[in-house]
Design brief:
2 domains, five-stranded mixed β-sheet
Length: 410
Amino acid sequence: MRFLTTVLFFALLLAAQPALSETTITWWQFWTDPTIKPVISSMVEEFEQANPEIDVELTDLTWANGHEKIAIAFASGKGPDIVELGSDWIAQFAANGQLADITEAVVEDTAAFDGWSMATYKDRIYGRPWILGTRVLFMNHDLVMQTAEVTEDFLPLGWDQLGYMSKKVNALGDDIYGWGSNTAEKHRLYKKYLSFFWSAGAQVYTDSGGFCIIASEPAVDALKFYKMLHDSCGYVSNQRGIEDAFLDGKIGFILSGDWLLKRIEQEKRDINFRTTLMPGQKFNEFRLTGRSFLGGEILTVNAASENKEAAIKFIDFITSPENQLRFCIANRSANPSSRVAQQDEYFQSDPNLQTFITQIKHANHPPVDPDWVFIESELEKAVESALFENVGPGTALLKARDNIVNLKKE
């Protein structure tokens, strides 16, 4: 009897213990900054507590070599269950059959998030948008007011006003510049140009996707205008150098991301600035013609994963409106993909954050094309040759177009 009692006691004791994890999923991600990494780790712990049958192994990547590591892992047939991808990598890995098609798992959520088109390749969805990224126009209000040309509430509503005021600010002094213009900085310069490219109504391909049209008249007009800003009133440096000069009160206008708001807050910069939407080529009454560059972080599932259901469950948790809001507050960022999160008071009460939320709705992303890395390189070379080698904008873009067309023929 004592033996049976002992056996029964241990059986009850074991039954009372939490169930051991049955599934381990691996997640590779890029957010390692000390302000945000603890929040990521905390979210993982909370998910595991709510789902004791699932363990999550977290691996940090860097932007310096993360793409290479992911490519090698996928090619090996192994790799993580979940991987954070930059939006311009989706087509490459989807075309190679290395990403799981999660269309049926997420299709009911498409109205609740922005950025799906960046995760869609050949009409199938290969990831869930997480944190987006765009750029807006920053203006040094004090410098603009010193020109005595405009009223207190001035914001540039079109390229003519932007160009005019940039030149006026540039004329204020030898150490003052109207426009912050990027050097030949890889993965940066072409994004600046594309904001003007799209604002002019230019496209990389025709609507059917059949023809490359990056040398169209609107595209050439956009490069001519960007070159005019660069040549006539540009402070030329890398992105960090431009932002440093802007914060030091030396530049009237720059295009930048929400990380600059974070710098201003953390460094307690005393600068009277305004943010506004990317101005369109021509002003209209709605002031919505300008388009900015849109990118983002997409959470994807490895096609070879044996834990797809658990992986999608975790992705749903991380990208929930509550967790996106929590992430953005911790990171002082303004680009959640969740439309519910975008409506939170945190964003609505801050006019600068609200500028970014609004710009997301009026931003374009590059084509989801497996050859985008090559196309990007051709665009960068075209812009560089127009700005720094005195090649005509039309000639530069025609050469880029011809190279892209030849690539597609191979």
